[in-house]
Amino acid sequence: MATNLALDPSLIERAVEVSGEPSKKAAVTLALKEFIARREQRRIAELLGQLEWDESFDHKAERSRK
């Protein structure tokens, strides 16, 4: 999909430098993937303390299950 975006050239050049990617497209693609992963991780972290744990669950027993 072709997309035209007006991006800050200094940010793009810095992204290429920091990422080590060979092209602007590769650097932007990597940046978007990392942005998405970080946001998804944040949503998971927000669940911390909100889940009810089953105290009777034995995770060690599950490891030895065959």
Model description:
The protein has 66 residues and is an all-alpha fold. It has a domain at 12-48. It contains 3 helices and no strands. The chain has helices at residues 9-19, 24-46, 59-63. α1 packs across α2 (24-46). It starts with 8 loop residues before the first helix and ends with a helix. The model has no long low-confidence stretch (mean pLDDT 90).
Beta strand %: under 5%
Gap between N and C termini? 47 Å
In N-to-C order, the SSE pattern is: HHH
The parts where pLDDT drops under 50 for at least 5 residues are none
Biggest sheet record: none
> Gyration radius, to the nearest Å?
21 Å
Question: What is the compact description of this entry?
Answer:
The chain is built from 3 helices and no strands. It has 66 residues and is mostly helical. Helix 1 packs across helix 2.
What key phrases describe this protein's structure?
elongated, mainly alpha, 3 helices, 0% strand, 66 residues
Question: How are the elements arranged and paired?
Answer:
Elements: H1 9-19, H2 24-46, H3 59-63
Helix pairs in contact: 1-2
